[in-house]
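Recap quiz, item 2
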Amino acid sequence: AQRVTQPEKLLSVFKGAPVELKCNYSYSGSPELFWYVQYSRQRLQLLLRHISRESIKGFTADLNKGETSFHLKKPFAQEEDSAMYYCALRPYGQNFVFGPGTRLSVLP
Amino acid sequence: SQTIHQWPATLVQPVGSPLSLECTVEGTSNPNLYWYRQAAGRGLQLLFYSVGIGQISSEVPQNLSASRPQDRQFILSSKKLLLSDSGFYLCAWSPNTGELFFGEGSRLTVL
């Protein structure tokens, strides 16, 4: 069965420090992967998707098929990055599978 | 542009009372529609999805039901609420392929 894991429930970093939110998936086919973010009092929204290969708000994520990972990275965290982050897998022709989420707290 | 509206934003209901949460999408036709439940530490659990009017698929057995009376309207219901139905419910839509777009959510408290 398809599954997405995010090992950290809470990740705290200081402003200006690098941040990496881990995501691993299990899927035998070619995956389509996403990162969603929910800022305080805002709706859940797409941050980035692997097929776009773009950087959003300084965040990047690289798909590593060998390690079945899609970690989210940012070299210098900002306080406004504090939010809940969900990694999601969309198996071909099927519904999204979400990870349990990681709450990122960027300390001043 | 497409928008998604979900209401009510908050709801407090007694055990045994009925429930109706509504969701409408504007600016698109024949969207795929979804109801999720968001729980802390457990991510998003898909409850129902619909690919067309009157077509509902249930992902988990529960006390809830869903209906799609119109192309862009999706309703989450219950005849008799349980304490365990308390939670945060999200409506979402997507085109046939691509990302999910979420509503602002409805927080249900069952007392």
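Chain B touches chain A at residues 34, 38, 41-44, 46, 49, 59, 90, 99-105 (CB under 8 Å).
The CA atoms of residues 38 and 44 of chain B lie 5 Å apart.
End of item.
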